[in-house]
Amino acid sequence: MNVPDFNNLSIETYRNRKEIIRQVAAQIEKDFAQFGMEVQFSGEMDYAYQEIFSQLREHLIWLLDRDYHRLVLLLYQIDLSEKQIMKAELSYPDVPQSDLLAELVILRELKKVLIRNYFKENPDKL
Fold this sequence. Notes:
Blueprint: H1 18-33, H2 48-66, H3 68-78, H4 82-91, H5 97-121
């Protein structure tokens, strides 16, 4: 059995996977809390993506405008590289930076959850 391709993820695939959504929301809440920013997931699955996205967007707008250093530290904590961000900006030049970063954060946190779950279920792959 091969390791899944975690580099080509689509959020769409996981929108109805309640446990994955809860884990991603918890990971986002944890990472943002480390930088003094509250993100709360109500548990409402039908609107989970939009709920989390809009909260991230607001925090990212604030950070982009007022505390770029903390933004860089947050992105480092989440493990989003400058290269990934630049690639996304080139691919989607008309998307506001805050929206793009929110999307990238959600995707990266999803990837973390899926990788953690994969190795938890397949300890022999470590």
